[in-house]
Hints:
The protein is of the alpha+beta class. It is built from two helices and four strands; from the N terminus they run αβαβββ. A two-stranded parallel ribbon has the order 1-2. Strands 3-4 form a two-stranded antiparallel ribbon. Helix 2 (34-45) links the parallel strand 1 (26-29) and strand 2 (48-51).
Amino acid sequence: MLFHDRDGAGYRLAKALQAYQGRSPLVLAIPRGAVPMGRVLADELRGDLDVVLVRKIGAPGQPELAVGGGVERERHPAG
């Protein structure tokens, strides 16, 4: 395993992305597993965190295997 836990992964990623620290980056995280890592990343980079809700597209006969994902697009008021 490359990382001890999700927090450790977030700290390691933040170190790799230090160039964005203090530039108000927006970190987008996918529930469930990526949100804790995203929180660490956003805190370390002094940015904001938001969540992207995604629906898993599963493989036939293998409900735990994701072959893709989809998101609903919010309609912009102007178009």
